[in-house]
Structures are given as structure tokens and as C-alpha cells.
Amino acid sequence: MDTSISPTIPVALTIAGSDSGGGAGIQADLRTFAFHCVHGTSAITCVTAQNTLGVMGVEAIPPQAVVAQINAVCDDIGVQAAKTGMLLNKEIIAAVAELVEVLQIPNLVVDPVMVSRTGAQLLDDDAVKNLRNLLIPKAALVTPNRYEAQILSGFPINSLDDMRAASQIIHRNTGVKVVLVKGGGMQGSLCGVDVWFDGHHMETLTTKHVETKNTHGTGCTLSAAIAANLALGKDLITAVKQAKEYVTTALSYSLAIGKGQGPVGHFFPLLIK
Ligand SMILES: Nc1ncnc2c1ncn2[C@@H]1O[C@H](COP(=O)(O)OP(=O)(O)O)[C@@H](O)[C@H]1O
Ligand SMILES: Cc1ncc(COP(=O)(O)OP(=O)(O)O)c(N)n1
């Protein structure tokens, strides 16, 4: 007897880099999709040699190979939502942006990954222009952290008001539908506070601050959880709020592995009885 559960299983696509340490990138995204009961597909953009201490090396995948992976997934399986993470260079960004348009990939979440928490550069300097002009305008949501929001807006961020102003500038400059400025890099009580702006409505999203040094992969996990929720058919604000709860819980169950910043933990559904 065939016990397959198609065609009701939602499918999401991650277009991102590999993290050998398993805390961020493709590994975090696929794990997050799985814990949302969403089938995960992937297009790998680069391979990092990485652990909890930092990034030791990066190798780019040729843009045509990234394109081939996306085509292979979309031509046959189809996706209900997608996210981008580490895209590394301007050529990969241009190729992905073109394909998003050609294939009409729905519910695109762009996590504009530029630098890791350990300080490693994850995007070439000359690639920001393509991210801002070619890819972000095609997204349903862009999720810059404090540093990325400063680069995209050209505005220094030191307060909640600054996060709000940056979200408005990014919205205006890119034409993206919704901006979520993340506050993981903010000091004190603002750490863990995010700002949502859709052009009309601005909302401050708050969950409890989790005191831990093991925060590796928070941004990847958040954007993957949002994409998973969109694939499940949730509206955007619900998808974001529930993804934020997921990240908060994952931070509460973070993994003290390695000698540096361990990753957030995804095993809580299995641990909570
Ligand atoms: N210590 C923390 N406690 C609660 N939420 C946090 C904490 N650190 C980060 N977050 C949340 O995790 C998500 C990812 O944000 P952030 O860490 O800024 O992204 P990135 O990993 O891209 O730098 C956001 O929703 C942010 O508010
Ligand atoms: C391969 C890869 N992609 C993305 C990141 C950045 O991940 P993020 O979730 O923003 O977490 P931190 O690196 O800031 O802890 C990465 N490091 N590697």
C-alpha cells in the first residue's frame, strides 16, 4: 500500500549557503522547515568552513549551478514559499533575482545576510547594490538585522526610534512590501525587539529577551520559520509573529556545543512533554 502524504504537504525553498557547523545557513533552514512539517528544498550558493568560533573559509558555487538547482526544484516539485540567505556575490544575486521573476516564485523572504555575529564578512562589498536594487524589491518581506539595516538605509541605529526610521527608509528606497528590522544586535532591553513596517502600519514586535551566548543562526531560523509559515498558508504578520515565538523558544533551548557561540536549538518539540 502506498502511504505517501502528497499532495497536501507544503514545500519551501531555501537559497543559501552551507554552514559546516550546522548552526546557520542551509542546515538551520532545512531543520526549521522540518520542525514546521514543511518539506524543505534547497539551492546552495556557497560552502563555508565554519564552526562556533567563526568562518575559516568560503567557496562560491557558480551562478549557473545555483540557477540549475532552483530550476530543478521549481520545474518538478513547485514551492509555496522561499527564502534567501547568504548569497555571497553580485553575480549570484543577479541570477537569483532574475529567476524569482521568471518562475514567479511566491512568498519570497529575503534575509540580507552580510556579516555573521562573529564578525565574518558573508557578502562582497560590491554586492549590496544588487541586493538593494534587484532582489529586495521582489520580496514580500526583507529581514535586516541592525548592521544590515544600517547599510541598507545609510542611517545609524542606536535606538528603537532609529530602527523605526531605518525601516521607513528601506521601505521607501526598495519598494519592498514589508520591512522587518531585527533587534538581536541591539543593547539591553531592545535586544529581541523587532520593528515591522508595511508602508502604512508600524508595529513593535516584542518577546522575552533570552540571556544566552549561544545565538548562532537566529536570523536564518527566523526567516526560514517565516517562509515555512507562509508555505503553510498563514498571512504575513501571523507568519512573522509565530516565527518570532519559534526563535525565542529555540534560543531558550540553545546548544552549548563548541568553544564559541553555539547554535539555537530546534529540538524543543521533542523535549517538551
Ligand atoms: N537574546 C535574544 N533574546 C530574544 N530574542 C532574540 C535574541 N537575540 C536575537 N533575538 C531575535 O532573533 C531574531 C533574529 O534577529 P538577529 O539576531 O538580530 O538576526 P541575525 O542573526 O540576522 O543577526 C529576531 O527576532 C531577534 O529579535
Ligand atoms: C552559511 C551562513 N549563512 C548565514 C549566516 C548568518 O547566520 P545568522 O542566522 O545571521 O546568524 P549569525 O551568524 O549572525 O550567528 C552564517 N553565519 N552562515
Tell me the domain tally: 1
Mean residue pLDDT: 95
Order of helices and strands: EHEEHEHEHEHHEEEHHH
Given helix and strand content, the structural type is alpha/beta
GO molecular function, one term: ATP binding
GO cellular component, one term: cytosol
Domain Pyridoxamine kinase/Phosphomethylpyrimidine kinase: 19-264
EC number: 2.7.1.49, 2.7.4.7
Concise summary:
Helix content is 38%, strand content 19%. With 273 residues, the chain is an alpha/beta fold. The chain has a 9-stranded mixed beta sheet, sandwiched between helices.
Structural write-up:
With 273 residues, the protein is an alpha/beta fold. It has a single domain (11-261), classed as UDP-N-acetylmuramoyl-L-alanine:D-glutamate ligase. The chain is 38% helix and 19% strand. The protein has helices at 25-35, 63-76, 90-103, 128-135, 146-153, 160-174, 218-231, 236-252, 268-271, and strands at residues 11-19, 39-51, 54-60, 81-84, 108-110, 141-142, 178-181, 193-197, 202-206. It has a nine-stranded mixed sheet, with helices on both faces. Strand 8 and strand 9 (202-206) form a beta hairpin. It starts with 10 loop residues before the first strand and ends with a helix. It binds adenosine-5'-diphosphate and the ligand Cc1ncc(COP(=O)(O)OP(=O)(O)O)c(N)n1. Adenosine-5'-diphosphate binds next to helix 7 and helix 8. Pathway: Cofactor biosynthesis; thiamine diphosphate biosynthesis; 4-amino-2-methyl-5-diphosphomethylpyrimidine from 5-amino-1-(5-phospho-D-ribosyl)imidazole: step 3/3. Keywords: ATP-binding, Kinase, Nucleotide-binding, Thiamine biosynthesis, Transferase. GO terms for molecular function: ATP binding; hydroxymethylpyrimidine kinase activity; phosphomethylpyrimidine kinase activity. Residues 19-264 form the Pyridoxamine kinase/Phosphomethylpyrimidine kinase domain.
